[in-house]
Specification:
single chain; 268 residues; mainly alpha; 1% strand
Length: 268
């Protein structure tokens, strides 16, 4: 048969068959009457190649599966390992697709509710928007924007415990006012260029922990138990790394205080 007929029978293209010739995956037949003459052996091998390709197996792997180097006592064993590796890769890809689908559904839900399109939870996004609106000066707004941007990055990277969203839910007017005051204190020091004294940094960090403890209330113990400590440490490292140089010392103290709270809660 001619190459066009071979392509038609296997539902592929002449160009693809010629590429298989080029990489040595399919033997080039001899010429007969000036034309390449393909026979049933070519057809059978091409069927196997196409079948394996459609299963997601790379061409380099197919070549090793169809033509294993050296004598092989059991020819199915190398092929079995390759097939299992492909299944593992497919499982990983399916999980990535499921994660993407979940994020898209969350975005659709947020859009339908008129919410904010962001990698971080809606309650957290609303909190920072509220803080930004309440800020009375550009420096405080800048501090709030930087923390909000950090949160978006951390959630995008998977470097923020999902349980942290509970800290931003159900805010009362008093809780908003308390958070606004803390942002203002930090922004004031940054603007003045003063370095916070250790005792003052400890006081601010203690205020952050106390605010979280009061806000979450009786659910705090269960929330802390569910946090992955490694993820929490990555969040703190990223928080300190991305802080303004003037804010880095207080960022470290606050981060350490939060980690201590988590560690104590998990050890209780």
């Amino acid at each position: 048969m001619r190459i066009a007929e071979l392509a038609d029978l296997t539902e592929t293209t002449v160009r693809t068959i010629r590429y298989y010739h080029q990489i040595g995956l399919l033997a080039i037949p001899e010429r007969r009457n000036g034309h390449r003459d393909y026979d049933l052996s070519h057809l059978a091998r091409l069927v196997r190649i196409r079948w394996l390709t459609q299963a997601g197996i790379p061409l380099a792997t197919i070549a090793a599966m169809l033509d294993p180097p050296g004598p092989v006592v059991d020819a199915t064993q190398p092929a079995l390992a390759d097939l299992q590796a492909v299944v593992t890769a497919l499982d990983e890809e399916m999980q990535r697709l499921a994660d993407r689908r979940g994020r898209l559904l969350n975005l659709i839900g947020a859009a339908e509710r008129g919410g904010i399109l962001s990698p971080m939870p809606q309650a957290m996004a609303r909190f920072y928007d509220q803080m930004h609106e309440r800020a009375g000066d550009p420096q405080t707004r800048r501090v709030i924007r930087r923390e909000r941007d950090f949160m978006e990055l951390a959630f995008y990277r998977g470097d923020m415990p999902p349980q942290s969203a509970a800290v931003y839910e159900g805010f009362t007017e008093a809780a908003f006012a308390e958070s606004s005051a803390l942002f203002g204190q930090i922004a004031e020091r940054v603007q003045q260029g003063d370095r916070l004294e250790p005792l003052e940094m400890d006081r601010i960090a203690d205020a952050v922990v106390a605010r979280v403890t009061r806000h979450v209330g009786a659910d705090l113990h269960g929330l802390l138990k569910g946090i992955d400590l490694d993820v929490a440490r990555r969040a703190v490292d990223l928080y300190v790394r991305l802080a303004d140089p003037a804010q880095r010392p207080i960022a470290q103290v606050i981060g350490d205080a939060v980690l201590t709270m988590i560690e104590k809660g998990q050890g209780a």
